[in-house]
Write a structure and sequence with these properties.
Structural class: alpha/beta
CATH class: Alpha Beta
Shape: globular
Strand content: 15-25%
Bound molecules: flavin mononucleotide
Radius of gyration: 19 Å
Order of helices and strands: EEEHEHEEEEEHEHHHEHEHEHEHHH
CATH architecture: Alpha-Beta Barrel
Oligomer: single chain
CATH topology: TIM Barrel
Strand order of the largest sheet: 3-14-13-12-11-10-5-4
Number of helices: 12
Distance between the termini: 42 Å
């Protein structure tokens, strides 16, 4: 047990935060196309959700053009994208907030229409996801079979993450989060159903973890380990992912990551796996934070279906040090203050999660604005 509450200050990688209500990374498909850049509307959205001493983890952003697999999602690899994100980080910092960026490569969860050369998406192995994907012109189609990366191509993949990490630094972020969850490229390497490789990046657990660890070390060299977080979803089943026996895989991975002195480990609770796609609350599943806490000696952020009381209980139990909120941060721009006051939460409208434009994006009122109406 601890005495920590959502409003006990915390230091993450030397960065002082005044509360533990973190905004989870949320894809909203509002980037400017062509260019896939963050824009003024996104700067307003993040500024609305910034709070003094609060941490935002900005939405998944492609590390390279071939990492894209959804329309109107931002990247972080071109000068134009750096300039777009700079507006966002400036707006958040002006409110005293802190902001990390999530680094993303979708791997097999892509389509030739998103690929710079119109070719096959890349993945550890040529195994198609049993899922649908949105093409660049917004059609829903089954995921195509990806192309397996050659071993000789892997250093270039790591290089793309390093380049994106440098771009994020130039854009003024306070740190970066490596997206190794929810069925995307790095999780495809981790898990045995999607990684059938026979080289040093496939087969035994040590090999399947190699790419994630190499990327984590390479990005830590750019940023310093204390400014690099990582997100994992053990027991998750989003986007046709899932490891039959997660414990050996994730115990090894988390044990190795623990040695790097990263800013934080961000775990998605399995009960919320797939929350981006639909309303889910998987029952009778373990708590990832509770299971893996003993293996992780740094800051642990838990996410997935938290409301307020349950978040406080998890901190009090010591299973996590901070709680990330996703959907309720969409519909409550002043979520930390609402939780502090024990106020009601505005329900979110799933229909506008991924639409373009300001509706369902900039128009959720703060408590004070709602009271004044
Ligand atoms: C609209 C939407 C977009 C999301 N985009 C991302 C993303 O970009 N990166 C990520 O790691 N998770 C993403 N997620 C998952 C959330 O970060 C979070 O783990 C999930 O919604 C469960 O938390 P919640 O119950 O507080 O919403 C998304 C979820 C939603 C609803």
């Amino acid at each position: 047990m601890t005495n920590n509450t959502l409003f006990t200050p915390i230091s993450i990688g030397g960065m002082a935060l005044s509360h533990r209500v973190v905004m989870a990374p949320l894809t909203r498909m509002r980037a400017t196309v062509p260019g896939n850049s963050a824009n003024e509307m996104m700067a307003q959205y993040y500024a609305q959700r910034a709070s003094a001493g609060g941490l935002i983890i900005a939405e998944a952003s492609q590390v390279s053009p071939d990492g894209r697999g959804a329309p109107c999602t931002p990247g972080v690899h071109s000068p134009e994208q750096v300039a777009g994100w700079k507006r966002v980080t400036d707006a958040v910092h002006a409110k005293g907030g802190r902001i990390y960026l999530q680094l993303w490569h979708m791997g097999r969860l892509s389509h030739p229409s998103h690929q710079p050369d119109g070719g096959q998406p890349i993945a550890p192995s040529a195994v198609a996801a049993n899922a649908d994907i949105t093409t660049a012109d917004f059609k829903r189609v089954p995921c195509p079979t990806p192309r397996a990366l050659e071993t000789a191509e892997i250093p270039a993949v790591i290089g793309r993450y390093v380049h994106a990490a440098r771009c994020a630094m130039e854009a003024g972020f306070d740190g970066v989060e490596i997206h190794a969850a929810n069925g995307y490229l790095l999780e495809q390497f981790l898990q045995s159903r999607t990684n059938l490789r026979t080289d040093r990046y496939g087969g035994p657990i040590e090999n399947r973890c190699r790419l994630v660890l190499e990327i984590a070390r390479a990005i830590a060299e750019v940023w310093g380990a204390g400014r690099v977080g990582i997100r994992l979803s053990p027991y998750g089943i989003a986007n046709d992912s899932g490891e039959a026996e997660p414990m050996p895989l994730y115990s090894h991975l988390i044990g190795e990551l623990d040695k790097l002195g990263l800013a934080y480990l961000h775990l998605i609770e399995p009960r919320a796996s797939g929350a981006g796609q639909r309303e889910v609350d998987h029952k009778d599943v373990p708590s990832a934070a509770n299971l893996f806490r003993p293996m992780w000696h740094g800051v642990l952020i838990a996410a997935g279906n938290f409301k307020g009381g349950d978040a406080a209980a998890m901190l009090a139990a010591g299973d996590a040090d901070a709680i990330a909120f996703g959907r309720f941060f969409i519909s409550n721009p002043d979520l930390p203050e609402r939780l502090r006051r024990g106020a009601n939460l505005t329900p979110y409208n799933r229909a506008t999660f991924y639409t373009r434009g300001p509706e369902g994006y900039l128009d959720y009122p703060t408590m004070d604005a709602a009271a004044a109406e």
